[in-house]
Specification:
- The protein has 194 residues and is mainly β.
- 3% of the residues lie in helices and 47% in strands.
- Strands 9, 10, 11, 12 and 13 form a 5-stranded antiparallel beta sheet that branches.
- A hairpin with a 2-residue loop joins strand 16 and strand 17.
- The protein is globular, with a radius of gyration of 19 Å.
Length: 194
């Protein structure tokens, strides 16, 4: 049938679509440096002039793969979220969770963020260490606001983030654009842009 064109080699061997990714790999990295393929229990990154396998990473029960815009980091979700340094093939951190948070990297791959569903909390991490960046201690989030439901990084300025807060029927949605400045020791300053 026509849907066999989207099956992976693992699906063909099993003679059925496997649980996991909605569309089987391969996929290209954002800048086209790597081709990412799925194999039993692993993913491979192919690159270089001769497109050789350059990195192989464990990926048990693979459900989701995402590479940062500058191709420094790879997020692999299977049993948990695993954040990898691509150049060193080194795991930075594992974060338990279900496939709820969607992690988004900023323009220069220095920060990655997600929203905790239903809590109105925006979590911004230093991408190189995956340490949470906060406004003040002891909060365990970078920003919290009732109704916070979405966000997007500027594609050109790595410190600019826009977030959306839902209101009631008369207010609708409010969008705030802020400048995030790293002030050291995993603390950040959030200042609205006029």
């Amino acid at each position: 049938s026509d849907n066999t064109k989207t099956w992976s080699e693992m699906d063909r061997r099993a003679k059925r679509l496997q649980k996991g990714l909605p569309a089987p790999l391969p996929m290209w990295s954002p800048q086209g440096t790597y081709l990412i393929t799925q194999h039993p229990g692993t993913i491979r990154l192919w690159g270089g002039k001769s497109m050789q396998a350059t990195v192989e990473l464990p990926a048990a029960e693979l459900q989701f793969v995402q590479m940062s815009p500058s191709e420094k980091y790879l997020v692999v979700f299977g049993r948990e979220f695993n954040f990898w340094d691509v150049q060193n093939a080194r795991i930075i951190r594992s974060i338990p969770g279900h496939c709820g948070p969607v992690f988004k990297y900023n323009a220069d791959d220095s920060m990655v963020a997600c929203i905790l569903p239903g809590k109105g909390a925006l979590m911004v991490y230093d991408a190189a260490t995956m340490k949470l960046m906060t406004q003040e201690l002891p909060p365990k989030y970078t920003m919290q606001e009732d109704g916070l439901c979405s966000f997007a990084w500027s594609p050109t300025n790595p410190n600019i983030i826009a977030h959306v807060v839902s209101g009631d029927d008369s207010i609708g949605y409010r969008v705030t654009i802020e400048n995030i400045t790293d002030i050291g020791d995993n603390l950040v300053d959030l200042s609205p842009i006029a």
